[in-house]
Amino acid sequence: MVSPAEGLVRLKGGNRRFLAGEARADSLVNEARRRELVNTQNPFAIILGCSDARVPAEIIFDQGLGDLFVIRVAGNIVAPSQIGSVEFAAERFGTKLVVVLGHTGCGAIYATLEELRRPTEGHSPNLRSIVDRVRPSVEALFEGSAPPNDEALEHRAVRANIRASANQLRHGSQILERLIEYEGLRVVGAEYNLETGEVDFFEGV
Questions:
Q1: Fewer CB near the terminus (10 Å): N or C of the chain?
Q2: Handedness of CA 69, 71, 77, 78 (dihedral sign)
Q3: β-sheet bridge partners, residue 102
Q4: Domain 4-203 adopts which CATH fold?
């Protein structure tokens, strides 16, 4: 079983290979590995990431079939279905590391900031449900002295949303709380930079 510390080492090493253009050629298409996984899987990390097409976890971490249990939703928000998915993987496969993976330039964050600046009724109820889950973590940034510019505000908002999602996983499920306290489950937050390709593990590490 892979420990959280070893899982982080693997993810960081994979991201370094990705940055260096040294990704393993067979990491996603190894036929022998595919056959091994027909009846079992043992992912060493659970990734709750954004649906953004520019942030595919297996690629930016240079991992292959069966390595990652990936849950993707706009804004890397935490709702009951996401919590249930994390619970399932952590209990069923014994995976010890959960990474909440946000990214720069996140459309869900932009939509929430726009809503806070200029409320509108234009969103569909489904999109509004995403904005409403992001809103509490971002709303606090408008209290007191504001960041100096929009770029700084967006940066803070992305990270605040990642922290909020990580905390929801830590404290929003009796199953995950038990696994954290007694089984060594670890939840961390990370941000992927679209410009550089680098992942910064900045929360809970």
A1: N
A2: negative
A3: 191
A4: Beta-carbonic Anhydrase; Chain A (3.40.1050)
